[in-house]
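Predict the holo structure. Ligand: magnesium ion.
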Amino acid sequence: MATTVLPSPTAALERLTVPSIDRIDLVTVRLPFVSPFGTSVHVWTDKEALLLGLGSGGVTAWSECVSDPDPFYSPETNETVRHIVKDFLLPVVEPGITLAELESRFRRVRGHGMAKATIENGILILLALERGVPLHELLGRPARRIMSGLSIGLKDTKDELLSAVEHAVARNYHRVKMKVKKGQDIDWVSAVRERFPDLRLMVDANGDYTPADIDHLKQLDAFGLMMVEQPLAYTDIFEHAALQREMTTPICLDESILSLADAKAAVELRACRIINIKQGRVGGLLEAMRIASYAAANGIPVWSGGMDETGIGRAVNIHLQTADGFTLPGDTSETSNYFDEDIVDTPVVLADDGFIEIPAGPGLGVRVLPDRIVKRMVRMERLR
Ligand code: OSB
Ligand code: MG
């Protein structure tokens, strides 16, 4: 299969230059979830997020790292990010160099995409603030309303699951994703499907199955799902290709895609028909846009994943979804689904038709509230 390559969607962005940065803070906040978020790999009861504050003149840009304190979704953790950011990435950030040069310096550090994304995104947000333009405009993209999607964690009972889905339907979410794991899958999907025959529904296994489960997974084909996300191992592409040959339901890869090169391998091997792009997992907004553009050119729809972010990361994902290729609803939900009280001032809410407006104003368009940061802060380190 010959894949199609379009002109780079990031060429102009790569020519932007790193501004001078006179203040750098690393702040860890911990926000309780309104209810625990269960997956096949872990149950999270709160969001512990590492925030990077970049100050230049009177302007401060806040960027949120998507890592967790634990390595259960990704090998990176808030502590590995702190280490890599402080000791290897920030030392090569130099005012005046282009973002292309920055990315090339970052490439010497292998992996650690979440750490790289935190800095790259912070710089982009800072540049947008300095120019007084919204982030999506800096990215070269016109404003548009963003589709919504809810990710429902594993529940203790089917009744709890059904009432969560009912809530999503009542709010007019554009699609519903439910987590599954071995032993909590077919019957649970069947219960939802029976009650909501027309719902745009998908499942996410976070890598809980093995190739020995192919016959079991094929049962999912009966439910008209939009896709099954990351059924097999978090590092795998090859076995997913074998599974995709056996299943009619499209496979969507999440954990396995860490770069444009991974996306190309997955598409060429036909390991998936859809890609979940988490800007943090792939090293930042530029690589996310490259993957989206490559996928679009090859008939692979993409959507923006989420990492239960606070309003900072949530806003980044919203701006990103103005980019070409984001044609499916992502894991972009209302703030109230996760937090009673966020650290930014305009919570994400759905319009009556389920769409989300891009927050207006320079940068992310949301105001980071210093008193809320202080209230939720569990650690703070001033680096400059
Ligand atoms: O696999 O997409 C995932 C949350 C934490 C870790 C992994 C995942 C998720 C989600 C939630 O599904 C997405 C969200 O609502 O932000
Ligand atoms: Mg996932």
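The radius of gyration is 20 Å. Residues 23 and 55 are 5 Å apart (CA to CA).
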